[in-house]
Amino acid sequence: MKIEVLTLFPELVEQVGAFGMPRVAVERGALQLSGRQLRDFSGNRWRRVDERTYGGGPGMVLQAEPLAQAIEAARVAVGPAKVVLMSPQGERYDQAWAERLSREPALILVCGRYEGIDERVMPQVDVELSVGDYVLSGGELAAMLVVDSIARLLPGVLGDEQSAASDSFSDGLLDHPHYSRPEVWRDQAVPEILMSGDHAAIRRWRRKQGLERTLLRRPDLLDSLKLDAEQIKLLREIITEQLHEQEGRT
Ligand code: SAH
Question: Across residues 38-57, what is the average pLDDT?
Fold first, then answer.
C-alpha cells in the first residue's frame, strides 16, 4: 500500500511511520509512506499557498492550484489512488473505513489548514473523512490516525494475524479484557477461567465479556449487528445477571 500525504508539514506526518506498527509496516515493505509539501506547488517565490477568504471575514484558505497540482503529482507517484480529504465535515472515520481503505492499492490523503481548502478542488476528492466531532487546526493528526489504523491491518504486519480480528470493532463489538503476569497483582487475581486451560470455556467467556462491555458502554454498536445464536444466548444471560444486580441494589 502506498500512501501520499499532502500537507504543509510533511516531516510531522512522516513521523507516524517511524514508530510502532506503522514502522513495522514500512520495514516489511507493506507500506510506503511519504509526505508531499504543498508549498512546492505554490508557483511563487514566497512559497505561499494561502489567501484571504472571498466575501470577507477572518481566516485564510488553502488555494486550489497548489492543491490540484499536488494531487496530480501524487497520482503520478503512486498510480491510481483514492483521494481522501481530512475534514470535520466528512463521513465519520471508523474501523470499517480502516478495513475498506486498507484494501486500496494507494491513497492520497489531503490535509487542510486554516479555514480549509478552496471548495473548487472538491471534484478531485473522492471522499471526505472526519476523525470526530471536534475541529483540529490541520488535517495532519487526522491523517496520522488513518495511516496508523490502516498500517496494522496490512497483511504480514501484526505478528499474530488473529489479533486484529479480535480487536474492538472488527467484529462490531468491543474487545474483552486482557490480563498478563503476574497471576495476582496487588490482591487482584486473574479470572480463574483464564487459567483453566479449557479453551472452549475461555472462548465463550471472552465472547460474553465483549458483549457485556458493548451492551454497557456502546449499546449503539449492537443496533447494526446480526448476532449469532450463541451471542443471543450470552446476551440473555448478561441481561438476566444485570437485572439481578439491579434488584440486589434496591
Ligand atoms: N473551517 C473548517 C475547519 C477547518 S480546520 C470547518 O469548520 O469545517 C482546518 C483543517 O483541519 C481542515 O481543513 C481539515 O483538513 C482538518 N480537520 C479539522 N478537524 C478535523 C476532523 N475532525 N477530522 C479530520 N480533519 C479535520
Answer: 97
3-class DSSP assignment, residue 201? helix
In CATH, the number for domain 184-249 is 1.10.1270.20
Strands of the chain (E only): list them.
2-7, 32-37, 50-52, 60-62, 82-92, 106-111, 127-130, 184-185, 188-189
Extents of the domains making up the chain = 2-151, 184-249
- Partner residues linked to 114 by β-bridges: none
Judge if the beta carbon of residue 138 lies within 6 A of ligand 1. Answer: yes
* pLDDT of the residue at 250: 86
pLDDT band at 164 (very low <50, low <70, confident <90, very high): confident
| Grid cell at residue 199 | 479453551
Q: 105 preceded by cis ω (within 30°)?
A: no
To test the ligand 1 pocket, which listed residue (92, 135, 141, 149) has its Cβ within 8 A of the most ligand atoms? 135
Helix (H, G, I), strand (E, B) or coil at 132: coil
For the CA atoms of 156, 160, 162, 167, the dihedral, rounded to the nearest 10 degrees, stands at: -100
Mean pLDDT score of the chain: 96
